[in-house]
Amino acid sequence: MKQRILIVGTGFAGLWSALSAARQLDLQARDDIEICVVAPQAQLHVRPRFYEADVARMRAPLDALFAVVGVRFVKGWVTGIDSEGQTLTYRDADQNEHSVSYSRLILASGSQVNRPALSGVEHAFDVDSLEQAEALERHLTGLRDLPDSPARNTVVVAGGGFTGIETATEMPARLRAILGEQAHVRVIVVDRGAQIGASLGAQVAPVVAEASAQQGVTWRLGSSVSAVDAGGVTLADGERIDALTVIWTVGVHASPLTAQLPAQRDAHGRLHVDRNLKVVGLDNLYAAGDTAFAATDDLGNHALMTCQHAIALGRSAGNNAAADLLGVAPIAYSQPKYVTCLDLGEWGALYTEGWDRQVVLTGAEGKQLKTQINTGWIYPPAAVRETALAAADPLIPVVA
């Protein structure tokens, strides 16, 4: 039976796992091992941009790219993983169940936003998936057909972390583009922190506060949403905010597929992996991206659930899964450089370096870099075999 490297997911980690595995097979001049990717679509959904308008543009087709590097794509929804039997089950578009074996499996099935057992939370939108981001965009566009009212003109963002900040600071311009420049729009961030942008550190917080104030984004600090309904939210202290638009950005959890594996997981459901990204205790299984709890260096830092880390994790996982199968030396995952590039709407953007987030660029300069990242750096390489394989080298540093 032909050996197979099976990859679950076409997000950043899944895409780069496939390309890097193909690169390693090419280096060893091996064409007797199949690389197969299973996912609902042969597309990269550019998740970091889902807070922006015109979200339909935030997808990149992968069919041609997979074809030129010799990766087989299978359209399906994974339903089970048998790590002992080394088989995976998936459901196709006609709801038929299939089983496929693997020699090495790379789990790169991503994560999803936390949806707590909260009254009315189903009324809240999110920017976690393309489908939800598109639903939010349709909803926002439809606001122009409603009578002018404070509730129509108000957006509540639950959560003041990275995604919440980018979503909230982008929202005033999005609302004015729909409702008109004279509309009295309100954007309110509800966050448990004691300070605006506190979760991103002392240097970042005052910049976020300045950008928020300049754009009219207000914060309800030290608070949380206790209930959502079709007309707004109720906060934990009893305050009522009338808003037809509520966006949930409070935390993410790794793909439920991680729970099927007999392995240790962190508080976010991520699988503990060694420095080669092999799942601890499971010899033939690797994890990458948001499913992996991976050390980035020897200083105690771990990869975050971001595309910046997912790209490098994918390059390492794909290379090492293939190397393991071929009997060649792996390249330990290492990503000591950490940067942050936070979009702050019309105010600009903020770029920092290091785990302590030392501010390097702000305002227009930061926005220029953020635009380069969002519109170029994080997209797949061209569907040219040599270009794609070269880009998948696990030793290439990732700074986006």
TrEMBL record:
Coiled coil: none
All copies of domain FAD/NAD(P)-binding, residue ranges: 4-312
Swiss-Prot/TrEMBL keywords: FAD, Flavoprotein, NAD, Oxidoreductase
Lineage top rank: taxon: Bacteria
Protein family per UniProt: Belongs to the NADH dehydrogenase family.
Official protein name in the record: NAD(P)/FAD-dependent oxidoreductase
Organism listed in the record: Phytopseudomonas seleniipraecipitans
